[in-house]
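hiii so my PI (J.) wants the whole complex modelled not just the main chain, which honestly fair. so below is everything: two entries, each one labled with what it is. i double checked the lines twice but i was tired so who knows lol
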Amino acid sequence: LVTKSPIKRKTTTGKVLITPVPFGEIDDKPLRLLEEHNISYMINPIGRRLREDELVEIIREYEALIAGTEPITAHVLQHAHNLRLIARVGVGLDNIDLNFARERGIAITYTPDAPSPAIADLTIAQMLAALRYTHAADRDMRKGVWRSRTGRSLSGCTIGVIGVGRTGRHVIRHLHSWDPIRILANDLVVDDELAKVLDFVWADKETIYRQADIITLHVPLTPQTRNMIGTKELAMMKEEAILINTSRGGVVNEVALVDTLRKRPSFIAAIDVFENEPYSGEMTSLENCLLTCHMGSATRDCRLRMEIEAVREVIHYFTGQPFINEVPEYEYRMQIVK
Amino acid sequence: LVTKSPIKRKTTTGKVLITPVPFGEIDDKPLRLLEEHNISYMINPIGRRLREDELVEIIREYEALIAGTEPITAHVLQHAHNLRLIARVGVGLDNIDLNFARERGIAITYTPDAPSPAIADLTIAQMLAALRYTHAADRDMRKGVWRSRTGRSLSGCTIGVIGVGRTGRHVIRHLHSWDPIRILANDLVVDDELAKVLDFVWADKETIYRQADIITLHVPLTPQTRNMIGTKELAMMKEEAILINTSRGGVVNEVALVDTLRKRPSFIAAIDVFENEPYSGEMTSLENCLLTCHMGSATRDCRLRMEIEAVREVIHYFTGQPFINEVPEYEYRMQIVK
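here's the output for the full assembly
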């Protein structure tokens, strides 16, 4: 394990473990910020997402964890004797046992706003790619096949947006540049004012499954959303429906999805997130599935903003200032309610 | 050659040759419209874009041609003894010798508005794909490689739009949903009112080449635009520039582009149109090139609208009504001026 020492070397051991890969590579500003505050850190020595057993072994000494999507389970937390802060780089909290962490007096912060624009971009990219078969055309041409496929225009479509949080709202704003477009949305909280401002119609999930040409998911993974889209829901969807998942893998049941993609060649899915990542399952051999590798937030400006926001929370911890984005109460409750 | 007979069979020989492939396949309404007017037609018997020699052989007897992108040269027109109307399905006229056709008393119509929304969709699709490496991720995953690439957000980019006609305007309207975004545009005619309404800045081409993160071309192929983007222009572009061409192949010099793509791995091109189509050249082996096969207008609604508009012109010809979209005078002039 290589421990990076701070510039001023006032502290002798690492205080912060940084697990996301990459980190500080686009721009070293996040690391410089830590160094300027004499906060020593260690960057993930394995260079990929840590497994639970690896994290258990490494985490013991650290007071703060700048966290990615690795499993921060009760088991891990039981070995994190010095841990007082988890600063999540990102917005999803399904990998952290929030309530167990709280019991052990560990504060948790996240970066809720930073990833949304980048995730929305990937979502629109995959909608258009799926409507126009651009991936298939590129593949064909590399095999020497010139075969134009007739797709569909985004304008005129009915779009179902499930989850109207930060990312869902960004997606809706982009979609309106394709007027006329019909946007049906669903969320736990029905806010009529929001629907008016963003120009969409609230609908129940079944209406969305049955009526939408494109269905896009922007929900967190919680006990209520796990397997939200299964065999029954997929069967309700239009013959030529497009399903986009840039949220979390467990929200769509993968066995049911693979079965649907196999049986219905006109049904298209664009999947960025998987139950187990890295993913190498059956979808990788299906023509009607567009694959990306959990890269919703993978833009330079978005990553940098997320990294700096997480680092700021760590600095606030060590300098005794209040946190900027502590994980709100409802995130804790959502992990309990079934 | 199979000649489709009209339902009422009042005419015994085909009067109209339909060359675009496919035609009337998404919806047979365009063919039904011809049949309802007792206008007999023959659909392209070869099933792909006709070569000049093939067209010479076939065209002789026909009075009207519903045309695609096949070469309608002086040589072809010399053999088109009965031809009185070319109804182009689409907007590009570079495949037709307009002035020679006029000399022979042949009217020419086109469908200028129909393709723009679909071409704009493909343009935005390829911008986002290039910014996020989605094609590369899909290819990787199918080879069992899970490798997230850090891309760029569209918001915050400087976009250079060359050609602010129907398609360029559609593209600009979509781009504004990614505010903050900086749009530099260039056209033959500088209209300050248009720049105000669409919220862009007029710039000369060199400024665009040097400053834009993404350059997108929406010009016709004319003597002035042929080879508009060559070695010199490519050399001005940013190290990580993205060049999108959904206009016409000859606008970008392919030898210069291939050379640039080979030498500059961070430079990305998304190319839909080629000097010679079907294309099977060197670009098909380059990782930093996204390929599609001249499918800008290939959406069902757009194709159907184009087909119906072309058919309407043919009906107007046979029923003695004025044309709806006769090719305007400046299109003829542009083919002469060098």
